[in-house]
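Incident log, structure service

09:12 report received: a user says their structure output differs between two submissions of the same chain.
09:20 pulled the input from the user's history:
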Amino acid sequence: MYSVEKIPSESLVKHFDYLLITAVLILSGIGAVAVKSASLVMPHGADGSRMPVVQVAAIVLGVVAALILSSIDYQYFKNFGFIYYFACVALLVLVLKFGTGEEYGSKSWLNIAGFGFQPSEFAKIGFIFVVAYYLEKINETEDKTKKLFLLALFSAIPVGLVLRQPDMGTALVYIAIFCAMVFIAGLAYKYIGMGLLASIPVFITGWLFVLDDYQKNRFRALFAPEAGATTYTFNVIRSIMAIGSGRLHGQGLFQGIQTQNAGVPVKESDFIFSVIGEEFGFIGTIVVVVIILSIVLRCIYIARSARDKFGSYIVIGIAGMFGFHFIENIGMSIGLLPVTGIPLPFVSAGGTSILANYLALGVVLSVSARRKRAYFGEE
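09:34 re-ran on a clean worker, output below:
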């Protein structure tokens, strides 16, 4: 067991990152309003009235969970991170046997006692704990071979299980997290090169034997969107139309031409950015992008000022997770990146995603509260 330094509560209050949590709460508020708008008119007359309620409840639970985690010294995650990791891996295995959601393209959901959730969202945090643990150990030891092998093994397990669902978008998030953490850890280029070479047959095998045709067509359609307008890129084209119709100031809240006429499929989650673009216009999208950028940059600042490498690696992993989600979701909404079905953090509808992101935020706040530098200048 690792020893944990006791820090006075007044010091934790002084170091608490009010800027970060304020930015996240503002973004969550915008998301709740956008989800409310998206749920007013659903395709095929579906009832979307429950979505805003679930969204607000998830935000409230998430804030409470984040505050609780922020009060726990992140060094405890060294002791219990593996327990959390293996619990998440067990859930990912159960998904392959008992999961639901195949009608949406991947069997990613578990239903327990009437409550449905995606284990892959929570498993990202366990993945980050384990990768951070081994990266710190690799930097502390001369004989790196065994630790590198274990790092690769424990990293590959959740990625492989997520690919089996199959959920290529979420698997890419894990890979992005791993790349960000390894880059910051400063591993020798020879190890990075070996990892890249080893990944080539993995990607080839995945393309040939794991990905379904509809997933491959999403990538192909990126380079010829008009050719697949009736199938794989219909959602993207409608999203682009909605965002374009917002112009500078937007159509007005609940007044979107496309979004209030079920013109954009999956507008409450995958394409929530189209709702913001159409109803709040270019100005609204810029505000959202600035808030997103401030969240990611703040996480990077916290990582730089963390007390140790373990804390730094954890926060960089979470920053990589947020950053990839932000870039991919907005990118696919405007037709610059392939559709992968991953949500916009703190904005898209989905209780699992909201709660998991707030848990990750709580971990960042825990590292922030114990960083070298106080919120207002040096100690």
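09:41 both user submissions now match this output. Likely a transient worker issue. Closing.
09:42 reviewer note: Residues 9-369 form one domain. The CA atoms of residues 105 and 270 lie 13 Å apart.
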